[in-house]
Design a protein that fits this description.
It is a single chain. Helix 6 packs across helix 12 and helix 9 packs antiparallel against helix 10. By secondary structure, the protein is of the alpha+beta class. About 35% of the residues are buried. Helix content is about 45%, strand content about 20%. It is globular. The protein binds one RNA strand through helix 3, strand 6, strand 11, helix 13 and helix 15.
RNA sequence: GUACCCAUAGCUCAGCAGGUUAGAGCAUCAGAUUGUGGUUCUGAGGGCCGUGGGUUCGAACCCCAUUGGGUACCCCA
């Protein structure tokens, strides 16, 4: 059979894995610097845990796992009934009761509720694991991809928001990517919707204005009109969308226009507090208020974030925000959380395009011991142990193949040194070390060889 | 869920308006070089041209279906 991969999934070559680990290490390190602790949850969850948490669209994109034992003759009637239900669009435990993790936030909420007695709040965790979505794959979109999330739960303090902004700032600075960190607040959006008389269609409203940079002012206006917005309200929104100015003047404008919106005022105050906290720290990247920023997930209730770069044409490199009642659906009310996510795959693409990876195709292995077979093989194998004892990564070619083939192997793996232990070397108790880049070869003692290579 | 594009060697592709044994580069293997690589040269292996049907004297090429891949929209990271 011809081997193939399910669409939307990828293999990662040794070089790709090393590059991905480079990114992950920076993100992990940054999270840990701010007191976030690692958490891992299973690849699969009970379907109940996930359904209904991501909206109707999201539910459709959850990968469901078929139950085992459906072919059991005793359960045939039940299975057929259940399948009929599935065909009419209903999920039923008779066919599937487990699903692949769709994101890391809901499993995190589930974990918090299950372990509430053991956890110390505020609980700050980070999680770097793959998630799966039954989406149509396309550029920059996969069916299996990694999320790198950090969330703090059980604290309403805006200090968390401030630190999460710092986390973004430091992580991207460490990678050498210039970004803009965009901030908005769902309460401000609610306030705008309120003064425009669109509170009842809040979701439509946010979805439309979120597309500003994609479809332009006319496109947004058309979409809002289609949703039944009034002429006066449309003009109000347009005046917001067209406004340009620094953060403080945006806040001033909002303050004025949303003077009569209680919720809008709350949102403005939150953003103002966030900025006040960040006044005392220096950021590498600009933090900008963007009132068109809406974020798709409807569970956000406070500040929301998005990270963008202007250096590469690509979607957002991360996002996040505050959700007041994430654990409520699992029966634990009143826990507020806030978190951010890094888009590993897109970051990879950006670093690749900007050539910002400090690691190349060079091997981890420093030396290849040529295998001459027989007793000579034994001697090379023994000598090799001394290198590893000194923490010098080295390997011996496992077969007594032609020298050319062994050298080719070293070249292909970009191993910088080749060590010869042949008759003459054994006799003198020394080895020959060849630098594969310059071609120079030296007859040295084993100690000298290790100094040279390590 | 909707729309469009693509499918030929392990990989990237070529294949003139349907016409004899379907080609190239890279990769692989062997030799020039029996303990010294990256360059070069020579040679070899490798394809029912995604699958099934149709049109035709004749199909990699045209038509239909099917499967797989890609891209855009919806949505999203």
């Amino acid at each position: 059979m011809k081997p193939s991969l399910p669409s939307g999934t990828r293999d990662f070559s040794p070089l790709e894995v090393r590059k991905r680990q480079y990114i992950i290490n920076i993100i992990r390190h940054t999270f840990e610097q701010f007191g976030y602790e690692p958490l891992e949850t299973p690849a699969m969850e009970n379907l109940d845990t996930l359904m209904g948490k991501y909206g109707d669209e999201g539910d459709k994109l959850i990968f469901k796992i078929l139950n085992n034992g459906l072919d059991n003759p005793d359960k045939r009637t039940k299975a057929v009934e259940a399948f009929d239900q599935v065909l009419s669009g209903k999920n039923t435990k008779g066919i599937t009761e487990r699903a692949l993790r769709y994101d890391l936030t809901i499993p995190f909420a589930r974990y918090v509720v299950m372990n509430q007695g053991k956890l110390t709040f505020p609980f700050k965790r980070y999680q770097i694991q793959p998630v799966w979505r039954a989406d149509r794959p396309q550029k920059g979109r996969y069916r299996e991809f990694y999320q790198c999330d950090a969330d703090a739960i059980g604290t309403t303090s805006l200090l968390n928001e401030a630190e999460l902004v710092q986390i973004y700032d430091r992580a991207y600075a460490s990678m050498g990517v210039k970004v803009r960190i965009l901030v908005n607040n769902r309460k401000i959006l609610a306030g705008i919707a309120e003064v425009c008389g669109m509170s009842d269609q809040f979701t439509d409203f946010t979805v439309a204005i979120d597309k500003l940079d994609k479809i332009g002012l006319d496109g947004v206006s058309a979409e809002l009109t289609a949703k039944g917005i009034g002429e006066a309200a449309l003009q109000t929104i347009q005046s917001f969308l067209q406004f340009e100015g620094d953060n403080q003047s945006v806040l001033a404008l909002l303050n004025e226009k949303l003077a009569n919106s209680e919720i809008g005022q709350k949102g403005i105050a939150e953003v103002q507090t966030l900025f006040n906290y960040l006044n005392s720290v220096s950021l590498n990247n600009p933090l900008q208020i963007d009132i068109t920023l809406a974020r798709g997930l409807n569970y956000y209730t406070g500040c929301i974030f998005e990270v963008k770069t202007d250096e590469v044409k690509i979607g957002s490199l991360g996002g996040g925000g505050r959700y007041d009642d994430l654990t409520g659906t699992f029966g634990l009310k009143g826990l507020s959380g806030v978190g951010v996510s890094f888009g590993l795959d897109r970051i990879y693409d950006v670093l690749e395009e900007l050539q910002l990876f400090p690691i190349g195709a060079d091997s981890m292995v420093k030396a290849l011991f040529i295998n001459f077979g027989g007793d000579l093989e034994q001697y090379a194998f023994k000598t090799l142990q001394a290198f590893r004892a000194k923490n010098i990564p080295a390997e011996i070619y496992p077969d007594a193949a032609k020298i050319k083939k062994q050298m080719d192997y070293a070249n292909n793996k970009q191993i910088p040194f080749v060590v010869f232990c042949g008759e003459t070397e054994i006799a003198s108790g020394r080895v020959s070390v060849k630098n594969m880049e310059t071609g120079e070869q030296h007859d040295v003692s084993i100690e000298e060889a290790m100094l040279l290579i390590g």
